[in-house]
Specification:
By secondary structure, the chain is mostly helical. The chain has one domain. The protein is built from 9 helices and no strands. Helix 2 packs across helix 9 and helix 5 packs antiparallel against helix 6.
Amino acid sequence: MLTPVIAGMLLGLAGSFHCVGMCGPLALALPVHHLQRSQQVIATVFYNIGRVITYSLIGGLFGWAGRGIYIAGFQQWFSISMGLVILMLTVLNYYLNNPLSPKWLRSFHYAIQNLMGRLLKSPRQYHYLLLGMANGLLPCGMVYLAIAATLSTSSVSESVLFMASFGAGTLPAMLALSFFGVHIKLSIRQQLKKAMPYFVAGMAVLLILRGLNLGIPFVSPVLASAPEPVISCH
C-alpha cells in the first residue's frame, strides 16, 4: 500500500505549480475576506478537503473499472495503451490545438461551473466543502493524468489511496496560496503552461514503462497477473 501513496504524493507535489498557476485564481476568489481569521482558515481547509474527497471518490470509481481489467489479465497492456493514448492527446491538445472535448463533457463542466457560481453567491461554512468537491470535477490535465494511472492499479483501495495522496500532494502549495496570497506572475504562469505538455508526456512514458514489466522499483515494477482460481479437492 506504500507504493500508491508515494506515487500519488509525488505526482501531486510535482503538479502543485500547475495547480497554483491554473487554479490559483479560483482559490483566491473564495469569498472569505469578510470572515474572521479563524473562520477563513476553516473555510479554506474545508475547500481543499473537498477537492481531496472528490479525487478519492473518482479514484474509487476508476479503481473499480481498473479492477475489472486486472482480473481479466489485461493490466500490463492497458497501462501501455493508456500511455500511448495520453501521448496522442498531448500532441492533439498542445501541439495541434485540437483537444478532444465531447459535447456531453462540456455540458457537464458547464453545469459544475453554474453550481459553483450559486454556491459563491451565498457561501455558508459547508458551502466551502461543496465548492472544493465541485472544483475537483472541473477539467484539469493533472487530474486526468492521475485518473489514467489509477486504471492500471490492481485494487480499488490502491486507486483510492493514490488519488487521495495526489490531492494531499497539492495541499501545501494551495494552502500557501490561500493563506499568504501568493500571486503567480503572468510570465511564470505562461512558462508553467509551456512546460505542462513535457510533464504530461513524461508521465505517459512512465505508464508505458510500467506496463513493460522491467522490474524497476516504482518506475516499472512487475505487475501482478490476475489471481488464479482456488482449486478445491472436495
